[in-house]
From TrEMBL:
UniProt keyword annotation of Zinc present: no
Gene Ontology terms, MF aspect: CoA-transferase activity
This protein's UniProt keywords: Transferase
PANTHER family, per the entry: KETOACID-COENZYME A TRANSFERASE, SUCCINYL-COA:3-KETOACID COENZYME A TRANSFERASE SUBUNIT B-RELATED
Quaternary structure note: Heterodimer of a subunit A and a subunit B.
Organism listed in the record: Exiguobacterium sibiricum (strain DSM 17290 / CCUG 55495 / CIP 109462 / JCM 13490 / 255-15)
Family listed: Belongs to the 3-oxoacid CoA-transferase subunit B family.
The keyword Transferase is assigned to this record: yes
Full protein name: Probable succinyl-CoA:3-ketoacid coenzyme A transferase subunit B
């Protein structure tokens, strides 16, 4: 049986096309690096200064100096390049990143994103998230649909401090896929065999249903 994380990662892989320059946020998004098929040629970029991230290293491959933005050890693909943060953010702010796949704490029905802090808890800062949601050509958020208390993370409006306003193009959860359009938030797929009614029951946000709605069975 596929876990919620498996469902999210498998669906997120469909967003990555051959030849893309992609930034993966910390958390669940970084796991995508291990799942990209070998025949799909993608350059993964990290804010700390690496273009060409490969899969997580095996034990004998670990190099403590080779890390991603989340300070996890990674590998580098053949042809990878290293640079400073200024160069890295020039790539992001200059619109050279085709796709940013980031995690989320809350996403609102108008495309607002909150993904960097919970008031009262110590945080290290926003990192590159604010730049990515404004500089990347396309922003896809992946997250679980509800929090540990069973409350919807897909909100009518965000209650946490925003990372960006109206910046999300697509939201993928373990239950559904939504697009954000001029007409509002649109349900385009239900995942894990769920119905539209199942999605409405766990979603605070208002949304319409695409006439071309796809329903993915469990395990896809």
């Amino acid at each position: 049986m596929a876990t919620s994380r498996d469902i999210i990662i498998n669906r997120a892989l469909q967003e990555i096309e051959d030849g893309m320059y992609v930034n993966l946020g910390i958390g669940i998004p970084t796991l995508i690096a291990n799942a990209i098929p070998n025949d799909r040629h993608v350059m993964l970029q990290s804010e700390n200064g690496l273009l060409g991230i490969g899969p997580y290293p095996l034990e004998h491959e670990v190099d403590a100096d080779e890390i991603n933005a989340g300070k996890e050890t990674v590998t580098a693909q053949k042809g990878a390049s290293y640079f400073d943060s200024a160069e890295s953010f020039a790539m992001i702010r200059g619109g050279h990143i085709d796709l940013a796949i980031l995690g989320g704490m809350e996403v609102a029905e108008n495309g607002d994103l909150a993904n960097w802090m919970i008031p009262g808890k110590m945080v290290k800062g926003m990192g590159g998230a604010m730049d990515l949601v404004n500089g990347a050509k396309r922003v896809v958020i992946i997250m679980e649909h509800v929090n540990k208390y069973g409350e919807s993370k897909v909100k009518s409006s965000c209650t946490l401090p925003l990372t960006g306003s109206q910046v999300v193009h697509r939201l993928i959860t373990d239950k559904a896929v939504f697009d954000f359009t001029d007409a509002g938030m649109v349900l385009i797929e239900t995942l894990a065999g769920l119905t539209v009614e199942d999605i409405r029951a766990v979603t605070e946000a208002n949304f319409t249903v695409s006439p071309e709605l796809e329903r993915m069975p469990v395990g896809e």
